[in-house]
Design brief:
CATH superfamily of the largest domain: P-loop containing nucleotide triphosphate hydrolases
Helix content: 40-55%
Strand content: 15-25%
Radius of gyration: 23 Å
Shape: globular
Distance between the termini: 19 Å
Largest sheet: 8 strands, mixed
Number of domains: 2
Strand order of the largest sheet: 4-5-6-3-7-8-9-12
Order of helices and strands: HHEEEHEHEEHHEHHEHHEEEHHHHHHHHE
Length: 419
């Protein structure tokens, strides 16, 4: 897919739906003032699946460690302080020479609230939220306790998710590749449970191969190594069927990650042990989270028929020539159109309705060649709104760039139908 229109669009719409401008008269001697309401922040809901011991906790810890500062990507994450304390505790446990952090246990569910921040007008401001929900792995494979609704809650959360991150234990992949029957049995059980949950989801799916460092022995070249794993997984009936069904209308990824680095731990006697001289340097962990927003938008585009897409493009181009306030009014009228209703239905999940329609349309708008001239003609309130539009657009571009770089480096990371 051409990523340039994909990248160009995120936020007129967000602001289109979230910024309200109105003028009030306070007597004939006072000038009108444009008031900008606090922008609504869209929330993407991510559900993570994986058996206990597969590396869910380590992945979560490493994602935050890598994305807690802006770096050169233009955005960063924040969590509520109580969750920061928990994440830092897990990191200290990882970095120590003692045991690995405790994973989720039966009856325990973890939900983390990531705010995506970027610089706007010299300040760091939140522009997106990502809810990261992690379930205990036993809910995938074991009978639920009498009277418990935990498994039903898991299935409901998967059905309502904007994206699903499915964890595949790299150690079990290695054991399967080496002909270990027990390892293959565990991998098969894991995939069977995931396939059951994921066949009915409408969301993009990211399969994450954890413990990628233990698979270094398969081949020196990383993409060749990933292709070997890709071939192994596609040889398993349920997994292959899921990819064949979903990849026609869904984005399905296979992302290899090491949450600790390639020289932090070593495999001895079937167990992964920390090395006393190991260097903590996670790899690829942030891409699993960065892919969520562009993948949702790209998937929506894949689901639209030609007529709907053309109607949306027409309205989208009209809005790029408007001020934020005018775009709000234009979008309100457009929502009665059939194309807008189809789009809202396609987006679903946490983006349903006006906010989702606006987000999609803005994230796919072409760059405005008269941007500077248009900005000069805007009121101060509209300029503030437009700054938020541009900041959100930059963040989506940065997220898309991370995904594009991964695909260029590891072509085997994109799963497609073999029909």
């Amino acid at each position: 897919m051409n990523s340039s229109p994909v990248v160009a669009l995120i936020v007129l719409g967000l602001v289109v739906t979230s910024v309200v401008l109105w003028r009030r008269r306070r007597g004939s001697s006072k000038r009108d003032k444009a008031v900008v309401a606090t922008p609504a922040i869209p929330k993407f809901r991510v559900v993570t699946l994986g058996l206990q011991g597969s590396g869910k906790t380590l992945l979560l810890t490493s994602v935050y460690r890598r994305l807690q500062v802006p770096g050169n990507r233009g955005y960063f994450l924040r969590v509520p302080y109580v969750q920061l304390i928990e994440l830092n505790k897990w990191y200290r446990e990882v970095a120590s020479t003692d045991d690995w952090p405790r994973g989720t246990t039966r009856g325990e569910m973890r939900e983390f609230e990531f705010s995506v921040l970027t610089g706007i007008g010299g300040e760091a401001k939140p522009i997106l939220d990502i809810g990261y929900l992690e379930y205990p792995g036993e809910l995938l494979t074991d009978p639920d306790a009498p009277g418990s609704t935990a498994q039903q809650s898991l299935l409901t959360s998967v059905a309502q998710a904007d994206a699903v991150v499915a964890i595949i234990d790299g150690l079990r992949v290695l054991q399967t590749y080496q002909g270990d029957r027990r390892g293959r049995s565990i991998l098969q059980t894991t995939l069977d449970a995931m396939v059951h949950c994921l066949l009915s989801t409408r969301a993009p799916v990211v399969f994450v191969i954890t413990k990628w460092d233990v698979l270094d022995q398969l081949h020196a070249d990383e993409n060749t190594r990933l292709q070997l794993v890709h071939t192994l997984l596609m040889g398993i009936d349920g997994f292959r069927d899921l990819v064949n069904v979903h990849s026609a209308r869904r984005i399905v990824r296979l992302i290899p990650v090491t949450a600790v680095g390639h020289d932090f731990a070593e495999l001895r006697n079937g167990m992964i042990h920390k090395r006393p001289d190991g260097h903590f340097q996670p790899a690829n962990v942030e891409v699993a989270l960065a892919a969520v927003v562009p993948d949702v938008l790209n998937q929506v585009e894949l689901s639209l028929d030609y007529a709907t897409r053309q109607a949306i493009m027409t309205e989208m181009h009209r809005q790029t020539r408007m001020s934020p306030a005018e775009a709000v009014r234009s979008l309100s009228a457009f929502l009665a159109d059939k194309a807008a209703r189809v789009l809202a239905s396609s987006i679903g999940g946490g983006l349903i309705g006006e906010a989702g329609v606006a987000l999609f349309m803005d994230a796919r708008a072409r760059p405005d060649t008269h941007y500077q001239r248009r900005m000069a003609a805007l009121s101060e309130a509209d300029r503030q709104a437009e700054e938020i539009v541009q900041a959100r657009r930059r963040v989506v571009q940065a997220m898309q760039a991370q995904v594009t770089m991964l695909e260029a480096k590891l072509p085997a990371s994109r799963l497609r139908s073999e029909h």
